[in-house]
Amino acid sequence: MASHNRVILIGNLTRDPELRYLQSGMAVVDLGLAVNDKRKNAAGEWIDETTFVDVTVWGRTAEVAGEYLTKGSPVFIEGRLKLDTWETDGQKRSKLKVVCEKMQLIGAKGQGGQGGPGSRPPMARPAGAGNQYNRAHQSDQADAYSQPAPPDDFGDPPPDMPGGDEIPF
């Protein structure tokens, strides 16, 4: 039988990330994420429902999380569910958590997030890469950061985009 284990979450951090390194040198961060949802109760009233999720982030992504995220930061997480089991004082315990495979910082600076939807943290240079890497990717980075801002309202489209009747699909 086929199976599929995929989780996609958007929420806010419940605490500051604490970056640590294993003896092997691998970076790891455990995040607490609050995910809000609205639903109707039996009386038909809308209620807010918050789910708290533990997320483990590894490697370079963990370093980025430790550097750029703080309590309250909005973040997009994609990963997989993992059940951790252990024994304490003769009692078996378990906890379901998310292992992060992709993370994206969302929100604007100064609003708990670290950049807009198109922003990224500075690119890490691969080990052993020198000035040649920097020159080759400098123009790519400049293009990524110099995207025009989206319009403030949803009125007329920008002049370089087709109008409402000219949508190409």
Spatial strand order of the main sheet: 1-3-4-6-5
State the end-to-end distance.
Answer: 38 Å
How many separate domains make up the residues? 1
Q: What is the CATH architecture descriptor? A: Beta Barrel
The CATH class designation is Mainly Beta
Based on secondary structure, the structural category is mainly beta
Tally of alpha and pi helices? 2
CATH fold-level assignment: OB fold (Dihydrolipoamide Acetyltransferase, E2P)
Please indicate the percent range of residues in DSSP E strands (runs of 2 or more): 35-45%
Number of strands: 6
Task: Encode the helix/strand succession as letters.
Answer: EEEEHEEH
Largest sheet: 5 strands, mixed, barrel
- Low-confidence spans: 112-155
Q: What value does the Rg take, in angstroms? A: 21 Å
Shape: globular
Helix content: 10-25%
CATH homologous superfamily placement: Nucleic acid-binding proteins
The average pLDDT is 76
Written account of the structure:
There is one protein chain. The chain is built from 2 helices and 6 strands. It has one domain: Nucleic acid-binding proteins (OB fold (Dihydrolipoamide Acetyltransferase, E2P)), CATH 2.40.50.140. It is globular and about 55 Å long. The protein is mainly β and about 170 residues long. Residues about 110-155 have low confidence and may be disordered. It has a 5-stranded mixed barrel. Strand 2 and strand 3 form a beta hairpin.
